[in-house]
Design brief:
3-stranded mixed sheet; 15% helix; 7-stranded mixed sheet; single chain; 2 helices; 235 residues
Length: 235
């Protein structure tokens, strides 16, 4: 399902994604190795927006370059510090940090942030990027955009569903608009609708679907077994 982000001050386009999907928490290692928290060596960098944010909050703990909420189950990731990591592109495991409130990407040779890079980052409220890059979703996706030295700070993610501008792809009749990241939206089906463009009503007939699939698989297996058996008996 395609997602897009607006550039500059244009209204943020919508991601027409009709879904009732619930995503389970991702497993992680306590050491931070093998996860996005261990993508760069060392602890949180002094002076990063992540370190500043977590120092101002009680009940947090660091794990590699991550800051987590202590005591929560699973422990919620509040911030991710990827500053000065020699990143030429965003790391593949960035989706692990979708619950982050603060993210630092400064001091990296990043040349672009592809559309949909922050799909699902609905809690992100403070994002620091190199000065050469614009805020994802454009300036209209944030309450405030400031620059300091070689970095750009995007603060206060706006809800594109409340935008006065006309959405590029409005949600279908049986769906409601919901934020899906900076400048991105998703269309969530209203109960009891589901399926393509939320056109199907009622619950998905799982038993009927599994029964038909199982019967077809069994029939095909018996057909292949009988065919191969006759070939084996032929001299």
């Amino acid at each position: 399902m395609a997602s897009a982000a607006a550039a500059g001050g244009a209204p943020a386009p919508a991601a027409l994604r009709c879904s009732r999907r619930v995503t389970a928490p991702r497993p992680r290692s306590r050491s931070g190795q093998g996860t996005v928290c261990g993508r760069c060596p060392g602890p949180l960098r002094n002076g990063s927006v992540v370190a500043q944010y977590c120092a101002s909050r009680t009940g947090t703990e660091s794990e590699g370059r991550c800051c987590r909420e202590r005591g929560a189950r699973p422990e919620r990731l509040l911030g991710l510090d990827l500053s000065n990591c020699s990143l030429h592109s965003l790391p593949p495991g960035l989706a692990e940090a979708a619950a982050a409130v603060v993210l630092d990407l400064t001091e990296n040779p990043l040349t672009a942030l592809p559309n949909g890079s922050f799909l699902g980052f609905t809690h992100l409220q403070r994002l620091a990027v190199p000065l050469a890059l614009e805020c994802p979703g454009g300036s209209s996706a944030w309450e405030e955009v400031t620059t300091h030295g070689s970095s750009r700070l995007c603060q206060g993610q706006r809800n594109p569903c409340n935008s006065s501008g006309e959405l590029a792809w409005p949600c279908p009749e049986n769906a409601a608009c919901a934020p899906d990241g900076p400048g991105l939206i998703q269309c969530l089906c209203n109960s009891p609708f589901h399926g393509y463009k939320c056109l199907r009503e009622g619950t998905f007939p799982m038993l009927l679907f599994c029964g038909i699939l199982g019967a077809a698989t069994l029939a095909l297996s018996l057909l292949l077994w009988g065919t191969q058996r006759r070939k084996a008996k032929t001299p």
